[in-house]
Amino acid sequence: MRFTQRTMVTLGLAVVLSTGAQTAMAGSAKEIAQNAHKALDALCTKNQAARLLRTEAVAFLVFPSIYKAGFIIGGQGGDGALFKESKHKSTTVGYYRSVAASYGLQAGVQKFGYALFFMKESALEYLDKSDGWEIGVGPSIVVVDAGVGKTLTTTTGRSDVYAFIFSQKGLMAGIGIQGTKITKIHPD
C-alpha cells in the first residue's frame, strides 16, 4: 500500500473511532451475534427480497451498526456476525469487522447496517480463504435496492452475493460498501 493510501486509511479510521464507532466495534461475541441476529430478522420482516433470499442463501454476514463519519477524509466501521441457517435456525459461525476509508467532498456522520447474503458456497469459501475480503474484488455482488428487490425471484437470484443496506440514520450524503474491507475477528 502506498504512503498516501495508508495515511488516508489511518486518518479515516481515526475519524470513525472518534465519533463513537468504538461501541460498534467493541462488543463481546454474544452482543455482536445478538445484534446481528436481531438486524437480520428485522430486515427479513420488512423486505420481501431479503426474506426470499434467506431461504436460498448458504450464509449471511450481518453488520448491524456501521458508523460513518467524515470531513473531506472519512471512514466507516463496525462488527458483525456470520450465520449459517439449517432447519430454520441460525447458527453463528464467525465474527467479522468491516472498515473503509474515503477521501473527497463529504461531511457528516451516519449510522447504517448491511447484510450480505452468500448464495454460493464458493463465495463463502472466498471469504474464509481471503486475508480480508475487499468488497468489489472477488465474488460478484449485487446491492439490492427497491428496483432489484421487486424483480428478484429464486430463479433470477443467481449472483454470488446480495447486499442489503438498512437502518440509515444521520446526515451524510451517500452510502456505499464498495471498497469496504472485511476481516475475521475473535471477540471475547
Poorly predicted residue ranges:
15-23, 147-156
Strand residues, percent: 35-45%
Number of domains: 1
**Rounded mean pLDDT score:** 79
Radius of gyration: 16 Å
Number of strands: 6
Overall 3D shape: globular
Largest sheet: 6 strands, mixed
Q: Count helical runs.
A: 5
What is the subunit organization of this protein? single chain
Helical percentage: 25-40%
- Helix-strand makeup class: alpha+beta
For the record, give the distance between the C-alpha atoms at the N and C termini, rounded to a whole number.
Answer: 30 Å
What is the chain-wise order of helices and strands?
HHHEEHEEHEE
Walk me through what this model shows.
By secondary structure, the protein is an alpha+beta fold. The protein has one domain. It has helices at 3-24, 29-46, 48-56, 121-129, 146-151; strands spanning 59-86, 89-118, 133-134, 141-143, 161-171, 181-185. Strands 1, 2, 3, 4, 5 and 6 form a 6-stranded mixed sheet that branches. A hairpin with a 2-residue loop joins strand 1 and strand 2. Helix 2 (29-46) crosses helix 3 (48-56). The longest helix has 22 residues, at 3-24. The radius of gyration is 16 Å and the shape is globular. The relative contact order is 0.20.
